[in-house]
Structure formats: C-alpha cells, structure tokens
Design a protein that fits this description.
By secondary structure, this protein is mainly beta. The strands form nine sheets. Strands 12, 13, 14, 15, 19 and 20 form a six-stranded mixed sheet that branches. The protein has a four-stranded antiparallel sheet with strand order 3-34-33-32, with no helix packed on it. It is globular, with a radius of gyration of 25 Å.
Length: about 600
C-alpha cells in the first residue's frame, strides 16, 4: 500500500480545504513544500481570498483603472497580499510608513534609503511619501484622488484641474471662466469616468433662488499596449440645467441610465423637495415636494435601489429610508426647455410609497465620555448657519442606568452634527458582493465666549433597504450599531473654518491641535498632529448577506469598551509643515493620506 503523501491529495480537495483558510494559513501552507506552494498559489485560491476581503468591506489596492478580472495570477496574489497587510496594519496598530511605496522604476530599495526622515519614528527613507505640485497661482478648494496616478483639484477660482502625479503636471482642466462651486458627484472606476457638477447662483434667495448647474464628466482613455503615446483625459459637458430653491445636494445616481437627483429645501413648507432628471439627455424633469420635514439635526443622502430613489435620512436616535419608485416619479414628468429664463416649478406634493425606520443601537461608553468639555452654555458650531440653539447649562454628569438599552450619549441638546459623511463602497468589486454604506459624523460643541470648539466622532454601518428583522435583539448584527471616538478633541480648521477632516469607508483622518500638556507651543503656534482611526471591521455572511462584527456593545464585565475607537498619531515627513495644510483626503484602498499645503505642494503619504 503506498504511503499517504500531501502530493497525492487531489487538487479539488486541496482547493476545498484552502477555501476554509485565511491568508496567514495559506501562507504557512505554502512554506511546507514546493508541491503545496505551486498547488495553492493559484488563481482560484487567491480569488477566494479576494472575495473574503471584499466581504469584509476592504478594498483591493488595484493599480489605475484595473478590474479584478484584468489581473494576472501574480498580480492578483500581490494585490491580495497588499490588501491583507493594509487591513491588518490599519485595524490592529498604528499605520507605519510604507518605506518602499514610491521607489522609482529601475531602482531597488530595502527598508528605504537615508535622505529624509519621518518624525518620531527613527525611520529614514525617501520612498514612503511623494511630493507633487498643485496648480500654480491657485488656492485649492478640495482635492480628490482618482487613482494612484491621477488627482483632481478644484480651485477657489472655479477651475477643475486633473493632475498627473507621476509626471507632476496638470494634464487637462475645466474652466467656466467665472467663480463657481465644483463638487465630485460620482467616480466610476470600471468605466474610467468621473462626474462632477458646477453650480453658480444667478439670482433670488430662499425659495426663489435660481442656480445654474452644469453636469460634467472627465473620461480617462485606455492606453493601447502597442503605443507609447500618452492619452490624456478630457472634460465634456453633459447637461446644463437650472434649479429653483436652496439646493442641498446633487446625486448622479445611474450614469448609464442618465439619472440625476437633487435635494431642495422648500423654506415655506420647511420640507425637502426632490428634483429628478430621469434622463438628462431629455428636456424634462420631475420636481415634487416629498413632505419630509427638515430639522436642524437631519442629515440626508440619496441612493438608487431596485428601481426606486431612496432618501436615507438620519436623526439623532434613528434613521429612516423613504422610497420613491421611478415608475411613480415618471407620472409627474414636466417638459422643460434650454432657455436661460426657464426655471422648474414644484408640480405636486408626493409622499413616499413606503418608509422604513430603525433606531440606532447605542453602546455604554467609558465614564469620562459623559463629561461635557464645557461647563457653560454652548451653541452649535459655525457649520450651523440656519437655527442656532442655545443649550441650558448642565453641571451633572448622567451615566446610563439601563445597560441593556443605553440612551444616546450625544443628543442634539449637547452636540451638533457639523459634518456628516455618507460613504458607500466605491471600489471595483464582484457582482456577488452587496454594497454596504456607512455614515461618519463630526459632532461639535462650540463655546460662545472663548470660541474654542470640541469634537467627537460617531460612525455606523447601514444597508439599503434597512434591515429590521430581529436586528435590535441580535447582538452580532453590526448595522446601526454606533461606534465612537468619545474623548473630545480639537480639529484644526482651514482659513474658511472648514474642519480638516476626511473619511473613507472604514477609516477617518484629521488634523488636530495637540494637547498643550503633552506638547509645548513652538514659536507661538500651537502644535498640530495628524490623527487616524479605523472603524470596527465587519463582514457580510450567508445568502442574506447579514452584516456581522466581532465588536460587542461595550461596557462588559471585563471593563472593556469595545465601541470606543483607538485614535493613533501618524508619522509625517520632516519637510511637511502641518501649519500650512489647507486640504486633506484619504484613500484607504491604496493606504495613503493626501495633504495639500499653501506653498503649492501636495504630500502623498503612504502607510501600511
């Protein structure tokens, strides 16, 4: 009888075993012998590992506009290994400079080369960050990384500039010729297209305010393998239209179907109007009053789901999703015309066909988190320009008494949601992987006399539609479960009082004033530091794609508070002056933080 051997195991059986192993086990298995290395280091095994990463809501660090199906087996192995390193490093410890992230082609480097240094790390490398220019003689309003190579800048003067980071040049720009507001609306990596809007106020105010919009796209052509010619992207205008009222946000819901929507605040009814272009190639629109009431603490986003426009709204203790089927909206189409004098009008009051409401699940936080940073009356911060609320002085700290159903520790009487980021999984994925969303809230207290501002951070995941079956009683369900950075901190604001804060799916980064007791002031200026936090990991399980997490509710008998985030300080290059930063962004798929400074430079910092 032949002696059993690993080499005699059928490949199908090895593949079945490998599908139940994580990457660390796969790596260990490959080290046992050459036969297993060649048998395991295959596309089916690593595609399954890629699916597992995507189900844990972690992006694959693809290069350029590549899709997973475009990768060779060696490239897939490299991408999966890189994604796993990012996931492990960013979730479990302070991210470290990726020493060889920007090694020039043709050079070799091991653990970096001594030219520049990272503060407080004792690391000398010139390859863990890159410095590129920003548009000359322009003040950057915002920046958005598209891929590791391309970044789009919007300037205060109303230009949109596409910058090739590798060549360090601006390769194309869109300039309306007049000062206007530019905003990225959608990034379609698989189609190599970015959509954004230009907005310019024309006349009027409140419900009679007329705003001119232009919907613009930038297309990145695919390079042909047999040509050395560099094909640069190009801008084109898809549609011009005007709106009536105070536009709150615009959403490019389905570029292939040419579907666009916008929220409009109707002040006379204090409600939300829904403006829709069912096909932006046609001279027609839908403009209805949704009957959804506006409040100072209401936060909104818009998502297309199964043929319905879904308005996702959040208040301090619950979220609600309102469904407007396209088939119903199409019954209220009104003809428009391209005349400059034409403005759309609300045609009817149209309530949602159905609504789903679900409460947030609040954790028990450490006792110090219930202590307010200010002991005097407070008002919402500068982000609330509509209805400031003066809150009575509260001296006593109220700790939760019902540990099974703790209340919201950050109610609107004490904390105002100054900035809310709704983040949907934007990266290339697979058809079998559903998309999860999360919201990140910067809650603020603003002292009216000292002008000092303190922030806390709250975050949660949600699905569309909201899951409601036994969700509140299922302790492993991660959706709608609040997570915090509950120790108040002071975010550095740009010159226009805009907090230097960025959030991507799963992570957040901001510029923070250092505690004066920890770091002394230097040359009369308060010290600043780059801060980072990771949200709790989640995974999608089963045919119903239930959202699970290993994170509990906090406040357990062991004294831990699992829903409290661990904030970490990131290393920065010596040549980067944080006092000069005017914009910040984060690309968690590539593991980079991007900082724009006033001297016309952009620092791309790579961590792992």
């Amino acid at each position: 009888m032949p002696v059993p051997s690993l080499q005699n195991i059928p490949y199908d059986l090895l593949l079945s075993i490998a599908q139940h192993l994580d990457l660390a086990d796969i790596y260990a298995l490959q080290l046992t012998c050459k036969h297993l290395r060649y048998a395991i280091r295959t596309r089916p095994v690593y595609r399954e590992l890629a699916v597992s990463l995507l189900r844990r809501c972690r992006a694959l660090p693809l290069h350029g506009f590549n899709h997973i199906s475009d990768l060779s087996t060696d490239q897939l192995v490299e991408v999966v290994n890189h994604a796993a390193r990012l996931e492990r490093g960013w979730l479990t410890r302070t991210p470290r400079p990726a020493l060889n992230a920007f090694v020039p082609k043709g050079e070799e480097a091991v653990d970096g080369i001594a030219k520049s240094s990272a503060r407080n790390w004792g690391i000398k490398s010139k390859y863990w960050y890159n410095v590129a220019r920003t548009p000359p003689d322009e003040e950057v309003d915002w920046l958005c990384p598209i891929t590791a190579r391309y970044t789009i800048y919007a300037t205060k003067s109303g230009k949109a500039v596409c910058w090739d980071v590798h060549r360090d040049i601006g390769i194309t720009e869109w300039n309306h010729g007049e000062q206007s507001e530019l905003r990225i609306r959608r990034i379609e990596l698989e189609r190599r297209i970015v959509y954004f809007t230009m907005a310019k106020a024309l006349r009027g105010k409140d419900d009679e305010k007329v705003t001119q919009f232009e919907l613009i796209r930038i297309h990145f052509p695919e390079q042909t393998s047999d040509s050395d010619e560099q094909l640069d992207p190009s801008f084109s205008t898809l549609r011009s239209f005007q709106t009536l009222g105070i536009v709150m946000n615009v959403f490019t819901l389905d570029p292939e179907a040419r579907l666009l929507a916008a929220f409009v605040w109707i002040s006379r009814f204090n409600s939300i109007g829904l403006y829709v272009l069912l096909d932006w190639n046609k001279e027609e629109y839908v403009f209805v009053d949704t009957a959804i009431q506006w409040t100072d603490t209401l936060n909104l986003t818009c998502i297309l789901c199964d043929g319905s426009i879904v308005i996702h709204s959040e208040e301090e203790s619950f979220a609600c999703q309102h469904f407007f089927p396209l088939s119903v909206l199409s019954q209220h189409v009104t003809v428009s015309n391209p005349s400059p004098s034409f403005v759309p009008r609300i045609t009817t009051r149209l309530e949602p066909t159905r609504s789903i409401t679900r409460g947030f699940i609040f954790p028990v936080l450490p006792p110090d988190s219930y202590v307010r940073p200010f002991r005097q009356p407070i008002v919402p911060g500068p982000g609330n320009q509509i209805h400031p609320i003066i809150v009575p002085q509260v001296e006593d700290v109220t700790l939760p008494t019902d540990l099974n159903n703790p209340p919201n520790p950050w109610n609107s009487q004490l904390w105002y949601p100054e900035r809310v980021r709704f983040v949907r999984q934007w990266w290339p994925t697979l058809p079998s992987i559903p998309r999860l969303s999360c919201s990140v809230m910067l809650l603020v207290q603003h002292h009216p006399h000292t002008l000092m501002t303190k922030y806390v951070l709250a975050q949660h995941y949600f699905t569309v539609p909201l899951s409601t079956s036994n969700s509140e009683t299922n302790g492993s369900d991660a959706t709608m479960r609040m997570w915090y950075v509950s120790v108040p901190f002071e975010v550095v604001c740009a010159s226009d009082q805009y907090p230097l804060f960025a959030a991507d799916f799963g992570h957040a980064v901001w510029l923070e004033h250092a505690d004066e007791e920890e770091e002394e002031e230097l040359f009369g200026r308060r010290q600043k530091r780059l801060r980072f936090v990771s949200f709790p990991g989640v995974r999608l399980e089963g045919e119903g794609h239930a959202v699970r997490s290993g994170i509990g509710g906090g406040g357990g008998p062991d004294g831990t508070f699992e829903m409290e985030g661990t904030v970490r300080t990131l290393a920065i290059p010596e040549e980067l002056d944080l006092h000069e930063v005017n914009e910040i962004n984060l690309d968690q798929s590539q593991g980079v933080v991007i900082l724009s400074v006033r001297q016309g430079k952009m620092f791309i910092l790579s961590y792992e």
